[in-house]
Design brief:
This protein is mainly alpha-helical and 216 residues long. The chain is built from 8 helices and no strands. The chain has a single domain, classed as Up-down Bundle (Glycerol uptake facilitator protein).
């Protein structure tokens, strides 16, 4: 992998967190309606996903997600060293994106979330969200690769609404969101439960989806 690929992963994940956290802050400031705030948050995130996957995909594959990187590593499509570097770039980029969102909205840069997100319902929702994300990625790559940005954007926008966890589906996003005490935050002590669920879903999804979408 080239330096441009690593920068693309860091930049893309930063932009993703700017959209997640920034839109949450804006929505929370403009309305007391939680459903409307979540809708705004979901739309902004979906729009950003389409933009960053389309523009940065040719440079790095547009993972922006350690679980996605793990999935491709398990399939032998990225080496262990490159995968570890991708994950480091994603986590660092995500946290920087949160800090940039705080600066834009004149909030304290360094925060820890106080929002409780835990329990079997939340963890199972994260497993469904993660499995579904890999489903649309691998299914899209098998059938029509050019549609993957749209598929991912639409899936995550919808998954904000049909999962109990609002579909983090991304360990780097989960870590980064523990550093914001805003609409999008997650209590740091609860982040590991989400990450375990996401990784478990990845380990389940890869063999199933690799067989399902295998080239005959």
């Amino acid at each position: 992998m080239t330096a441009r690929a690593y920068l693309a992963e860091a930049l893309g994940t930063a932009l993703l967190l700017i959209s997640v956290v920034g839109s949450g802050i804006m929505a929370d400031a403009l309305t007391d309606d939680t459903a409307l705030a979540l809708l705004a948050n979901a739309i902004a995130t979906g729009c950003m996903l389409y933009a960053i996957i389309t523009t940065l995909g040719p440079l790095s594959g547009a993972h922006f997600n350690p679980a996605v990187t793990l999935a491709f590593a398990l399939r032998g499509e990225i080496g262990p060293g490159s995968a570890m570097s991708y994950v480091a770039c994603q986590v660092i980029g995500g946290v920087i994106g949160v800090w940039i969102a705080h600066i834009m909205f004149d909030l304290p840069i360094f925060q820890l979330s106080s929002t409780s997100r835990t329990g079997v319902a939340q963890w199972s929702a994260e497993m469904v969200a993660m499995f579904g994300l890999l489903f649309v990625i691998f299914g899209g790559l098998r059938s029509r690769p050019e549609t993957v940005p749209t598929l991912v954007a639409l899936y995550i926008t919808g998954a904000y609404w049909f999962t109990a966890s609002t579909s983090f589906a991304n360990p780097a996003v989960t870590v980064a969101r523990s550093f914001t005490d805003t609409f999008a935050g997650i209590l740091p002590a609860h982040a590991p439960g989400y990450i375990v669920a996401q990784i478990a879903a990845t380990l389940i999804a890869v063999p199933i989806l690799s067989w399902l979408f295998a080239h005959d």
